[in-house]
């Protein structure tokens, strides 16, 4: 199933990755206001997806948005801004697994970003990164998720549900990444 999800969503993944503010981490040009916006966009996207995934997968950790919230609080950015038209829903465990594939996989990309943060001189005043921390625990979470995904006994309809929800999750992240939020 992991292979199917990867193949079916590769083009979306690449498209969204290229548009994301995180590219400024990779080229080391990110400044503090842009970093704050990136964290806030990610916080909103992860909060909405993780909470919905947790509704259908009770053992799901749902902690990535909490790490982002710590980052934002550390940088004195409000997380209580009203967000309109940001609705994400899962309707079944299969859909939740499709969404979790995107969420868990993107955290792996966060490990690469963490390695590049140390080269972003305009972020030198940030003393600690909670989300982009480079912690090997992220890899453990990914491996644990892959086992859960492979253990789930998908029928054909559920496979399609998971694939479609993974695609919808990428598009949801893209929508949030294209929103501009006030940074206090």
UniProtKB/TrEMBL annotation:
One of its GO terms (biological process) is heme oxidation. It comes from the Bacteria. GO terms for molecular function: heme oxygenase (decyclizing) activity. Pfam families: Heme_oxygenase (PF01126). Gene3D superfamilies: Heme oxygenase-like (1.20.910.10). This is Heme oxygenase/heme oxygenase. The lineage of its organism: Bacteria, Pseudomonadati, Bacteroidota, Flavobacteriia, Flavobacteriales.
């Amino acid at each position: 199933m992991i292979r199917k999800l990867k193949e079916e969503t590769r083009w979306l993944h690449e498209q969204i990755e290229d548009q994301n503010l995180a590219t400024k981490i990779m080229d080391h040009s990110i400044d503090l206001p842009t970093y704050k916006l990136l964290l806030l966009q990610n916080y909103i996207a992860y909060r909405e997806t993780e909470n919905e995934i947790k509704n259908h997968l009770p053992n799901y950790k749902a902690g990535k948005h909490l790490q982002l919230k710590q980052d934002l609080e550390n940088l004195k950015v409000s997380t209580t801004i009203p967000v309109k038209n940001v609705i994400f829903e899962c309707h079944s465990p299969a859909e939740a697994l499709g969404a979790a594939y995107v969420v868990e996989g993107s955290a792996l990309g966060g490990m690469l970003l963490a390695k590049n943060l140390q080269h972003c001189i305009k972020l030198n005043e940030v003393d600690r990164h909670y989300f982009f921390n480079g912690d090997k625990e992220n890899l453990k979470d990914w491996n644990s998720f892959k086992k859960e995904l492979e253990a789930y006994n998908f029928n054909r309809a559920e496979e399609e549900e998971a694939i479609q929800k993974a695609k919808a999750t990428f598009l949801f992240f893209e929508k949030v990444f294209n929103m501009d939020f006030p940074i206090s």
